Amino acid sequence: MNNIKTNQKGIAALILVVVIGAVVLVMGKSLAFIGLSHSEAAQAYSQGNTAEEIAATCAEEVVRRFQIDENYSASDKNISIGTGQCIYTTATNGQERTIKINTQYNNYYFEGVVVINVNSGTISIINWGV
């Protein structure tokens, strides 16, 4: 009879070990998924920043073109910057120039607007929205 009680204690201990093992396994998998989601978020943030940097570089290039020619204009002009793309359009209202910029880097997009004033070769930035 004493032998049966010992076996029951062993079975209870075995069940406890299995339950604890399952809990540890679930927690380990959850931590792994959390780590992956943080890694993906960091990558998305980095690529979004790169798309924004491409837009700023594109805006600087268009402003440079206005320095060369005050009457410069473009509609859906496409330029490659690194591994990204920039499409821009310009609009003129007197001395004011509006540059609308759309950039793409991998699957990340950025839109911005830059407004400048051009007066006899001097450029003043009114709004730098990139």
What order do the helices and strands come in, and which of them pair?
Blueprint (H helix, E strand, L loop, with lengths): L1 H67 L8 E5 L2 E10 L2 E10 L2 E12 L2 E8 L1
Antiparallel strand pairs: 1-2, 2-3, 3-4, 4-5
What fraction of the residues are assigned to beta strands by DSSP?
A: 25-35%
**What value does the Rg take, in angstroms?**
30 Å
Largest sheet: 5 strands, antiparallel
Gross geometry: rod-shaped
Structural class: alpha+beta
Helix content: 40-55%
Q: Give the helix tally.
A: 1
CATH topology: Pantoate--beta-alanine Ligase, Chain: A,domain 2
Unreliable segments of 5+ consecutive residues: none
Order of helices and strands: HEEEEE
Give the CA-CA distance, first to last residue: 82 Å
| CATH class category | Alpha Beta
Can you give me a brief rundown of this structure?
This protein is an alpha+beta fold. It has 1 helix and 5 strands, in the order αβββββ.
Description:
The model has no long low-confidence stretch (mean pLDDT 86). The chain contains 1 helix and 5 strands; from the N terminus they run αβββββ. Strand 3 and strand 4 form a beta hairpin. It has a 5-stranded antiparallel sheet, covered by helices on one side. It starts with a helix and ends with a strand. It has 130 residues and is of the alpha+beta class. The protein has one domain: Pantoate--beta-alanine Ligase, Chain: A,domain 2.
